């Protein structure tokens, strides 16, 4: 187990290095540099050139890359051109995105596991057909369209949920009301993500259960006289859950893309919205930091998936 | 499982079939079987007719409609409700929504097909080489693929769209393709790995066929069914992605409408509340 994990982590290292090189080269390809934001008519161009030389902006790219990585290790991601503050302070918003992803993930599993089990257990009945019908619709509907419909229906028409922001104004952090307001703002975006993202898991679980049902060990269990509920809950369910557990990490990374759309639609101040704002205002230090951050999140998600998979499925560890 | 999927799979299969029959190495008997199956299955047949109608309608009408004319701003007809001149009303620039819908659908569809074909070609070649040769080649190619897999797709594409100075349908498709070929490559590779162990490959080798010939004329046709299913699903996903990017404002400018651009008009809260005819695009 440990051997596998350590080897898996070792594979991660070159990936992270490559990712950082790519992100750095992307940053170089973008117009403007750390000083462009400071240009004002009173500054002598020669002085700027001097500053550039001093900051190492005229060095070859690999020297700059090493400097950049050194700064990264010191926790310095650069300064935002637009907000004139360190990027590390700006990305404090990650907390919002984190809660949104967590709640979505929770809802995804709350919805998909019962639906998958029901439709797998009673397959080819009307209830299974209804559930598969739902998954087809879910597959066909792009997330952002669904988000818009939810916003329009529950937010505007029914007025049940707030239509923007992450918390109502005028509440002090730490109070119970503040917490409730946060949840209230989170619920609609998270539900929109969950209802769409869940369909893949439902399908997987359903197919997995139908497959497992026909295996020999289930026949053995029945022959031993295990009750129907025991066969389903202990034998089939536990075996069918393997791929679902394994996909947990990928689900996590898949959410990253989803939150960008949803944050934009619901005006939810998180990382995705910050990223879109920074791109449109050409705030490149923020953009590169965010790409790097999301890349690392994806790597960790893949790592988690593999580790969970090796935990639940011993066959993988041997390789 | 096969049976449950068949309805959608077949519907979508049809899309690619009609779109790029020529590019597929599918032998005629296979096509004939497919045709017989479709005619027998009522749902699939109706869907096929429906799809052909939409595609010919969209591509046909877009020959008559001029894109430049439709996207020209007309200040006298801003925010009109649907009437006889503007069938679906007008947007905030006084542009006809019906025309934009047709042009937008055409643009989205074209990009979807283009990206699907390009990712298909790259993915098939990459996966086939990795899977057929196996061993060290496979190992190296898979590490490259792993790296592409961990890139945060949406963000990288948005950054590239921002960097590329002037972009057209082709360059946009190229950017999308560069980060989308991994899925099909992985699939083909795993199937090719299994295929190379089969007797017919060994037999062909003994007879002295070159690796290239075995790969593309013998292994590939055996994987065609899985390629078709995968590519049809990709087509749908790619159209969705393109609309998504345009929706976020990183697809095409307003002068080249796509389904996503049109949708983003509808996010304006005022539009949502008062101008239902723009919001109605959501129905599409």
Automatic annotation (TrEMBL), chain A:
- Domain (ABC transmembrane type-1): give its ranges: 94-305
Q: Which PROSITE patterns match?
A: ABC_TM1
Q: What keywords appear on the UniProt entry? A: Cell membrane, Membrane, Transmembrane, Transmembrane helix, Transport
Localisation: Cell membrane
The membrane spanning regions, by residue number, are 9-27, 98-119, 131-154, 186-205, 240-262, 291-312
One Pfam family in the UniProt entry: BPD_transp_1_N
SUPFAM superfamilies, alphabetized: MetI-like (SSF161098)
Gene3D superfamilies documented for this protein: MetI-like
Report the InterPro entries cross-referenced here.
BPD_transp_1_N, MetI-like, MetI-like_sf
Q: Topologically, how does it sit relative to the membrane? A: Multi-pass membrane protein
Q: Which family does it belong to?
A: Belongs to the binding-protein-dependent transport system permease family.
The record, for PANTHER family, names: DIPEPTIDE TRANSPORT SYSTEM PERMEASE PROTEIN DPPB-RELATED (PTHR43163:SF6)
> Would you tell me the protein name for this molecule?
ABC transporter permease
Q: Which organism is it from?
A: Paracerasibacillus soli
Q: Source organism lineage? A: Bacteria, Bacillati, Bacillota, Bacilli, Bacillales
